[in-house]
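#onboarding

Welcome to the new folks! Below is a worked example of what a typical request in this channel looks like: someone posts a single protein sequence, and someone else replies with the predicted structure as tokens. Don't worry about understanding the tokens yet, we'll cover that in week two.

Example request:
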Amino acid sequence: MTATLAILISVLVVWMLALGWCGYGKRFLLALPVLLAGLGLNWMWMVWGLRAKPFENPVIMAQISAVMYAFCALVTGWMIGRFVRQWRLSKIERESEV
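Example response:
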């Protein structure tokens, strides 16, 4: 694995974790700038790193794929957060012994 590929995978993982965290805490307005930052980085990599034209089909498809990844990470984080919140609410407390 090259260093460039390792960096790209690391950035993708951090981006997905950030979107999952936004979903977990129901921070949907914060997810929008995170999404736009990821799309911007993806676009810059495609255009400047790979020398693609900004509106070529592969670039558009990569952006659509990134939006789908983002949506899945956000919804997964939201579902995990919902599960955890419901789990905490269903906790049964012991009655104190008198």
